[in-house]
Recover the amino acids of this structure.
């Protein structure tokens, strides 16, 4: 389904693993015309939409069980279309890049979780709701860690050095907040713009 029909600058395909409406609102506010596709949508159908960017949504469950999603994201990476993932989308991107995920002994739930942005050294207060995480042992060389959780040092964000793809474990779209990580939507738009004008 199409989320908004107003005039927009960018076309974004959002893959729905359990998407939150506030993510769609924020993408709309960033001048994106968003079309939401079911989780099992094929690579061919997504490519036919010819998006400027791909969004991998949050959702419940074990990311390793979403084998169809991992397979599709692997193919999407080779298109060089910018990709942004949140929560389950973050884990699926990591698996598509060759990383491993694992079940946390105690999940991360609620707000006020401190996350360090390793690029800026700024501590962001975040909202979280997940039971799995990306394993930091034997990470593929094409993955850079961008954020870490200061409570247990788990991976909270990554980017790929080969492709225009990045993701975070926490929820920058959280409503009513915290909003410390909202800039990630701007980063996604900047990535799209740099690809369009390359």
């Amino acid at each position: 389904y199409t989320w908004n029909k107003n005039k927009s600058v960018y076309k974004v395909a959002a893959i729905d693993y359990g998407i939150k409406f506030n993510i769609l609102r924020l993408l709309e506010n960033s001048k994106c015309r968003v079309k939401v596709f079911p989780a099992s949508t094929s690579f061919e159908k997504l490519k036919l939409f010819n998006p400027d960017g791909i969004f991998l949504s949050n959702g419940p469950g074990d990311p390793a069980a979403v084998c169809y999603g991992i397979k599709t994201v692997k193919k999407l990476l080779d298109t060089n279309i910018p990709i942004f993932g949140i929560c389950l989308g973050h884990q699926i991107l990591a698996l598509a890049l060759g990383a491993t995920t694992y079940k946390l002994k105690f999940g991360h739930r609620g707000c006020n979780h401190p996350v360090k942005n390793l690029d800026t050294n700024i501590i962001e207060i975040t909202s979280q709701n997940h039971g799995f995480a990306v394993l930091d042992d034997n990470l593929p060389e094409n993955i850079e860690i961008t954020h870490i959780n200061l409570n247990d040092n788990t991976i909270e964000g990554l980017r790929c050095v080969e492709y225009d793809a990045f993701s975070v474990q926490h929820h920058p779209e959280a409503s009513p907040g915290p909003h410390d990580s909202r800039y990630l939507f701007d980063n996604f738009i900047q990535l799209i713009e740099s690809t369009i004008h390359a």
